Amino acid sequence: MSGDTTNGLIGDRVTRTEDAEFVTGQAEYTDDIATSNAAHAAVLRSQHAHAKVHDIDTSAAEELDGVIAVYTAEDMEEAETSAPRKIPSMSTDYIQVEPELFRPVIASDRVHYQGEPLAIALAEDRYTANDAVDRIEVDYERLESVTDPEAAIEDDAPTLFEDYPNNIAYDWEFGDKDEVDEAFEDAEYVASASVDEQRLIPDPLEPRATVADYDSSSNELSIQMSTQTPHSDRHAIAGILRHPENKIHVQVPRVGGGFGAKIHNYDVESLVPWCARELERPVRWQATRSEIHQTSSHGRGLNLEGEAAFDEDGKLLGVRVDGLADLGGYVSSHVHMLTTVLCIEVINSQYELPKLYSRIRGALTNATCLDSYRGVHEVAAITFIERLMHESAKEIGMDPAELRRRNQIPADAFPYETVTGTVYDSGNYQQALEKTLDVLEYDELRERQEELREDGRYLGIGLSAYTHVSGVGPADVCKEYGIFKTHWESGRITVHQSGTVTAYCGTMDFGMGHQTSYAQIVADKLGIPIEDVEIIEGDTRHLNDGVGTHASRSLVVGGSALAESADDVIEKGRSIVAHQLEAPEEDIEFEDGEFWVKGAPERSMTIQEVGSQAHRAWDVPGEPGLEATTYYLPEQMAITSGVHAAVVEVDPDTGEVEFERYLSVDDAGNRINPQIVEGQLHGGIAQGISQALYEDVVYDDNGNMVTSTLQDYAMPKSFHVPEVETVELSTPAPDNPLGAKGVGETGPIAGNAAVLNAVVDALEPLGFDGSEVDTPLTPEKIWKGVNDQD
Amino acid sequence: MYPSEFDYERAETVDHALELLSGDPEAKIISGGHSLIPMMKSGLANPGTLVDIGEIDELTGIEWDDDTVSVGALTTYATIADDDELWDELPVLAEAAHEVGDIQVRNRGTIGGNVAHGDPASDLPAAVLAADATVVVQGPDGERRIDVDDFFLGMYATELGEDEILTGLEFPRSENATTTGAYVKKPSPSSGYALVGVAVSLEVDDGRIESARVAANGIMDHGVRLEPVEDGLVGESLDDVSFEDVAAVADEDLEEFMMMDDIQASAEFRAQLLKVYTEEALNDAVDRLDASLPTA
């Protein structure tokens, strides 16, 4: 079946059905779970960024009233239960990560970043646990630290791991350098750009949290946690704790945001179940905001610089790019893939790029580990190419919209294999660009920009044309990338005897509205009221396996699994109806919740009646019950695309940037719920704007995090973000049954470059150097860029 | 996030509060808690006892008499920012209170707590300096009245003694001239505190500036008067004076090496913002002369 709708729910702007509990404060998060007899955990974290640890004295902590136990790495080695292993990183053919570089669950004799766990204290209440941590004495030998990746790979830099004297964890190349250099020799125009990407903190409102309990008689470890990937966590914790995977139950209460930071396995999420197993009592932990800032993986932190070569008509001949990733103290689970193959696979964005050479290195630094954050390192790739197109247009003397137009992949070229081997499934890039220019009234806007400049006012127009890989698959791509678990998804639909439906999916909602959009798919397909569909996620007992929510995949892959399960339910229903109405199966029609015999519409059964019959099972042709499970594996990636435009005015006296307009023109294929799609865009764009102008992780010279609280770390507020106008375009994805493309991550991917290009464009007459932009472009940097020119 | 253990006492009267304060050298006064509690959570303050004066009714409210307006220490930012008479007669104070934090903060935080805390990046120090306040404090030896120009000493340091309680502020009312004023700031994108905030209070008679008090937050380690700006204003006719020129000397008496300089903004940039925002505050103050009640 295709994505045809039967009752019109697919594509409808259904108001989110899950919101009542969130807006009334009724939603239960991990830390709201009531436990009796629980031990409260608090973690001693390294105060230094780089140090040898000679001794940890926990005796004063243990003496405190109400303290149950204090464990260090040494204690865990000596304990009855097996000590936790390190957190593994993905294994790939193209980058080997030695176990030495894996992140430990608990540090023993050396720490590589401020905040690394050294001990865990368990007490009868949370305050006592924290007081206990304060009483632990650590004998550190401080070592020189380095948090800047450029400095880390210098010869005189302090070394994190003896086997990696230059702190380079990997040095990865793609493409034929000589061939690309030749293209540059033939070029009419060459332009350069660099993106010095700051680190960002994925900062969900709900910090990480875990509650674990252990039943020694069954050896069952029950874990409740705030995560995006419950099944992957079950598998990972089984490995880290050496506990049977089928004896671990992960259950996820409501999750207050994740942004990619609740995918990875972390230290405390394994330490808490370890302590529960050791103590044989419930253990609970809730991170503080500063713990999140210091220890949840950071995002971005990839510097890209390079050049583009063009012929006399402004057609791209080749791109060279050099990258350096700021990995932090260890190599986190996915970072080596994200900063290399997953970055360059969209580095040509919407353009026909014949040749590419790239080299990307990963530098170990005395900072928090780097990993995924909404948009991952596609943000760096799109920011780089879109900044490069803007700078190139200046170099060529061509309007930046025109330069993009000349290089876009034509609409009749799909499927299109790019220079990196990525297959673009579908799109219409010309339509997105022309629509953007049309809505902006681009030519008039450029005229107004000229007029305002005469009055000493500086308007800037920034364009950002993007592509984004959603719904990652197929299996051979996942194998090539080295992804632990190929990105299939499971979805199960059960029609109950009463005719109501429960649908289960292996994804995990943390704000995106799965309850609504999945229910729309299931209810539409089965032709039943949306109120009759319950969506269940986040429980490894309810659904055997799943992959989880990340990489703009839930709707595309999870939604497709549910769509196919719905089709299977209908097929099973058809066989029951055929049997009971004594007609051939091929004569049974189904639409809008009703089966009937072709040519005899009075001979009919509703799907609810079929459900009832299937459970009663007095007279069904096959197995009782009406249920189907699908493991959906994409054959092709669904490439989302679009053009974003920012129009800003910059005050050169204060460096302040004011938005006049933000336009988001996006092709997300078929939109199951356009309102939810727009909500995703708004939130993502806020994060793109924030990367361009506000957020920045700052370390001091000793590797102390200066931005460990929200007093100092500039999370965007509502008043920092302009009204976003959205325009819907659609070329349905050909591979998945919904024709959908993922949109969760497109906001930051497109937004950062749109804003940066707009600011640079505004300041062009003031001599601001746009080729090297140091983000975030704070008012001070803008003011200095205008006023302190050499 | 988890403050150290402390005792808590609720004071019934100012005298009771003074007695409780004298009972523990590590005691701290608390009312709205919007300055102290964040410091306790981050470990920057570890009081042994919190003496809660939040329910001493006599310390709340705004009172007018012929030549002064008195604002009780426990008066919230919201009360001040919502007071039409203050917007009319002491707009610099009303506007600064309106600029503090967000609605939740303004509903809890108090003028007395703010001024006593002496945070250089807060909004009220410049406003009370511009408004020529008298700070009223009670101590074991009775009441002291401190000229606001002598009150702010440094970062979180004021003339208020360890054993004293700030009970209120008094502001002079202008007899003949028309008073106007304004407070503008460049907020930090993370905390909302002032990277630079400028408060202006002008007395204008017949188009001439009779007196001017201009002060700034965020630029030095405590709120400061900008005397070169004041000197450039007094005696000038509104029609002739160039606020751009006057504001250009805003940082003239301030030592750049003493200026606030951190990840939020360098000293050099703060000095630049000081000039821009001084000009803006002066323009706003004059615009307000002609306007009816401004919108809060």
UniProtKB/TrEMBL annotation, chain A:
Start and end residues of each stretch annotated as Disordered: 771-790
Record has Oxidoreductase as a keyword: yes
UniProt xrefs under InterPro entries: Ald_Oxase/Xan_DH_a/b, Ald_Oxase/Xan_DH_a/b_sf, Ald_Oxase/xanthine_DH-like, AldOxase/xan_DH_MoCoBD1, AldOxase/xan_DH_MoCoBD2, AldOxase/xan_DH_Mopterin-bd_sf
Domain of life from the UniProt record: Archaea
Keywords, ordered alphabetically: Molybdenum, Oxidoreductase
Start and end residues of each Aldehyde oxidase/xanthine dehydrogenase a/b hammerhead domain: 24-144
Keyword flag Oxidoreductase: yes
A Pfam entry, by short name: Ald_Xan_dh_C
Molecular-function GO terms, alphabetical: iron ion binding; oxidoreductase activity
Name used for this protein in its record: Xanthine dehydrogenase family protein molybdopterin-binding subunit
Lineage: Archaea, Methanobacteriati, Methanobacteriota, Stenosarchaea group, Halobacteria
Automatic annotation (TrEMBL), chain B:
PROSITE patterns recorded: FAD_PCMH
Key words, A-Z: FAD, Flavoprotein, Oxidoreductase
FAD-binding PCMH-type domain span: 1-176
Species assigned in the record: Natrialba swarupiae
UniProt name for this protein: Xanthine dehydrogenase family protein subunit M
Pfam families: CO_deh_flav_C, FAD_binding_5
Keyword ATP-binding among record annotations: no
SMART domains in the record: CO_deh_flav_C
GO molecular function, one term: FAD binding
InterPro entries for this protein: CO_DH_flav_C, CO_DH_flav_C_dom_sf, Diverse_Substr_Oxidored, FAD-bd_PCMH, FAD-bd_PCMH-like_sf, FAD-bd_PCMH_sub1, FAD-bd_PCMH_sub2, Mopterin_DH_FAD-bd
